[in-house]
Amino acid sequence: xxxxxxxxxxxxxxxxxxxxxxxxxxxxxxxxxxxxxxxxxxxxxxxxxxxxxxxxxxxxxxxxxxxxxxxxxxxxxxxxxxxxxxxxxxxxxxxxxxxxxxxxxxxxxxxxxxxxxxxxxxxxxxxxxxxxxxxxxxxxxxxxxxxxxxxxxxxxxxxxxxxxxxxxxxxxxxxxxxxxxxxxxxxxxxxxxxxxxxxxxxxxxxxxxxxxxxxxxxxxxxxxxxxxxxxxxxxxxxxxxxxxxxxxxxx
Length: 251
Prior knowledge:
- There is one protein chain.
- By secondary structure, the chain is of the alpha/beta class.
- It has a single domain (4-250), classed as P-loop containing nucleotide triphosphate hydrolases (Rossmann fold, 3-Layer(aba) Sandwich).
- 36% of the residues lie in helices and 30% in strands.
- It has seven helices and twelve strands.
- It has helices at residues 44-51, 76-82, 99-111, 117-130, 148-162, 178-191, 231-250, and strands spanning 4-15, 18-29, 33-37, 57-66, 69-70, 84-87, 94-98, 141-142, 166-170, 197-202, 215-220, 223-228.
- The strands form three sheets. It has a six-stranded mixed sheet, sandwiched between helices. A four-stranded antiparallel sheet has the order 2-1-4-5. Strands 7-8 form a two-stranded antiparallel ribbon.
- Strand 11 and strand 12 form a beta hairpin.
């Protein structure tokens, strides 16, 4: 494995006093793409939200380290400044705030450095072109009136503009048609480099037809039950989650 980037050890998480993650272990190296798959209710979105510090999720045991720094007690904005990014499964609408202003302010908050409107607009247009987004989207309110596909493109646009060190993509491909999945995947591939890492959380393999992962993990009942390479995707497609869940139970 490449240089250890993200290290999760024996992570236990409760949501409203109900245990969801029950001893999850995961290591992600710099430059790697990890895919986490599993049935509904397995804890996939819980993991995504815990990584970015959502206050609804209570870590009761275990540690999360990023580049050697313990994240457990850090607030979401502190984690973002360290280089973590979450693409939401259900992006929020923010009426009254344009995409252009939102992304420029987010970039300034993340880096702590000012950037001129002219320079930022040039960068924004370049990233929008990669996602086949029309120029007028920059002046629309964040996700307000956006279709499902437009919202997911908006999330990927944020990732391309902010250039985080670790991107966690929670069900980015859900609800998208074939063309939209292809465009989103192209944006992810543009972001991917030897200096960052990606965790893709999904329950089907459509986006993985365009993105070759380094590792695939099967999450069941709050734990990583099985890990492997891309071949595990074919196993899931052939046998389904139920068969792997049964194998995990026997193990």
